[in-house]
Design goal:
Immunoglobulin-like; about 250 residues; DUF4843 domain-containing protein; DUF4843; 5-stranded mixed beta sheet; single chain
Length: about 250
Amino acid sequence: MKKIILYILLFLTASCQRSEIPLYSGTAGIYFEVYNEPTAGVYVRVDTSVLTFAYHPEKTDSIFALSIRVKGDTVPKDRQFSIKVIDTSANAAKAGIHYEAFPTTAIVPAGKASVLLPVKFLKHRDMQVKTFALCIQLLENENFKTDLPQLYVPDTKKYISATVHTILVDDALARPKYWLDGYLGPYSRKKYVLLCQLLDIPVATLNNTISVGTVKYYGNFMKNYLADEAAAGRIVYEEDGSVMKMGDGL
């Protein structure tokens, strides 16, 4: 009986030693790890992200940091990885116009399992009427494989690309949820931006819950401003050449 117990202990010891062997060997893999926050505090992995300049009219550029992760063990040396831009779509963003061109290689630092790839987007007038797409693909090289082409996302019950990430960029300021024509008049981008600048409020204000009384105050403020400008010989016009007006309910 003692011999049987001894054999069992020897077997368990050997099993524990074997479990210390790394589960992953060979060339490491590389993939995108980007999350969106559709609801406060809830993060969902995505292969498409959205960047808009609409709520920050003062900005002329914006940096989007793409998270890239390594599959496999870390190593004590820098490792270069390769990327390329897929620009075959009709709405493909153009380097030098919609974003700053970036190198086709980057580095995963020694001892690290992830890295951020910063992409600098440039605001351009045509973004007000069109959404542009920047598609970035990870490529295999001597350091990394791209053998994880897709990932399953339980939250959405869908598969997403792990090696291609698309960033949609625009400057389209849509009519906000709480824009009331009776006080603010017909919606226009120019009027909305001017209102926010004069009142020093965030552009997202009228998309958040707001009282009717506050919207009426905004309307009266703008009405007085437009009247003062007109009296000084500086009539404010809309983009289409018509005189900017507020609502009839004031």
